[in-house]
Amino acid sequence: MSKTIKGFSKLSKSEKIDWIVSTYFTDSKSAKALIKQYWNTDQKLQQLHDEFIENTITNYYLPLGVAPNFLINDQVYAIPMAIEESSVVAAASKAAKFWFDRGGFKAEVISTQKIGQVHFIYHGNPETLKTFFKTIKPKLIDDAKPITKNMEQRGGGITSVELRDKTDDIKGYYQLHATFETLDAMGANFINSCLEQFAKTLENEAQQFELFSAEEKDIEIIMSILSNYVPNCLVRAEVSCAVEQLTENQNISAQEFAEKFVQAVNIAEIEPYRAVTHNKGIMNGIDAVVLATGNDFRAVEAGIHAYASRKGSYSSLTHAKIEDGIFTFWMEIPLALGTVGGLTKLHPLVKLSLELLGEPSAKELMQIVAVAGLAQNFAALRSLTTTGIQEGHMKMHLMNILNQFEASSEEKTKLIAHFKTNTVTHNAVVEAIENLRR
Ligand code: MEV
């Protein structure tokens, strides 16, 4: 049977499912039942989800958890997190509680500039192109007015457009490099619409520019697109306290813990193998909040990792120091987020998450997300430099195995007590359950 199909997108949802299950599944009945089991019984809600993307067959759930007790700039937040990985929400909550008692998190937005580019090819005289750009610049802005009018009324819009010569890298390659202020919107649609208008104006005006030769008039637009690299859309999050307040557990002094912690950060600053894992832990916190609030985590990921390599080598996003007896731990990251537009008014759980956060502005959300990332890194380094992470993970692992064997609460209590002093491995847990049940 052919595994390819023409016109799949034209089929109805149930025709799509029928084709999928009969073509790719041995037990097509069970596959179809599972697909349908994940449909929402509220048809309107299901239709809303169906229409987010194309060829929807069902829903894919992620848990939405909450990490409470985050004190950020003297305000308390309960942070929504959509994530499948166990321990992340627990770690965030633990870090929140730890810093709540030590003055909380401080966060500030440093800048909010978004970027977009029109990439084009021009093989003529560079000086004539410069003159052309100067001449048409007001028209570029003017032609985009229908798109920018509303944004301008709210205080945003296009903040600059410049011509960049990239011919040293690719023959004939130039850019219109533009910057934008998009306020509470992430701004992707706004920026891309402006850029596509710039490209049209550029092409049309070139045809009429008298100083261009016949060949020079034919500017070739390659593409017009925003950049997800936003090194000037920056937020900083920080925690600090006296070193002696960093009491961790009886096995390590506050001073020793602080010093080990700073060393762990230093290692991630200079060692890319460690930096990637270190930053992955930060992204556990960031992505979860970005996703819960309906933002584009792929854009955020791409931009942040580019920022982590801005000095030519991939490095830690966080930094730490001890100075005059004060421990300070901080991070600066680029974040282009929106609290209006996109999914924010469409996805009911995104609306819920934003309400939970007190309907934040984009700037506030930048601060909250950065804090979630910093908290996550604090929690990870705190375990790594003291008990190791397996202790916590193994507890979750134990619970997962116990649930898999449908252990009763009485069995769970006994086995949790047993594994306080015994190493958790899959075999050891299975054996212990069997012994108990014998
Ligand atoms: C696991 O998801 C994240 C950690 O590996 C992060 C780290 O090593 O810092 C625990």
Structural notes for this entry:
With 438 residues, the chain is of the alpha+beta class. The protein has four domains: 8-50, no CATH class; 64-110 and 234-387, Alpha-Beta Complex (3-hydroxy-3-methylglutaryl-coenzyme A Reductase, Chain A, domain 2); 114-226, Alpha-Beta Plaits; 393-437, no CATH class. 48% of the residues lie in helices and 18% in strands. It has helices at 13-24, 28-37, 43-50, 88-100, 126-143, 145-153, 188-208, 254-270, 272-292, 297-308, 348-356, 362-384, 390-404, 409-418, 426-437, and strands at 64-72, 75-82, 106-109, 114-121, 157-165, 173-181, 220-227, 234-242, 318-323, 326-334. The radius of gyration is 27 Å and the shape is globular. It starts with 12 loop residues before the first helix and ends with a helix. Bound molecules: (R)-mevalonate (MEV). Residues 85, 277-278, 280-281, 284, 380, 384, 389 line the site of (R)-mevalonate. Belongs to the HMG-CoA reductase family. Keywords: NAD, Oxidoreductase. Its EC number is 1.1.1.88. It catalyses: (R)-mevalonate + 2 NAD(+) + CoA = (3S)-3-hydroxy-3-methylglutaryl-CoA + 2 NADH + 2 H(+).
Quick rundown:
The protein has helices at 13-24, 28-37, 43-50, 88-100, 126-143, 145-153, 188-208, 254-270, 272-292, 297-308, 348-356, 362-384, 390-404, 409-418, 426-437, and strands at residues 64-72, 75-82, 106-109, 114-121, 157-165, 173-181, 220-227, 234-242, 318-323, 326-334. It has 438 residues and is α+β, with helices and mostly antiparallel strands. The relative contact order is 0.12.
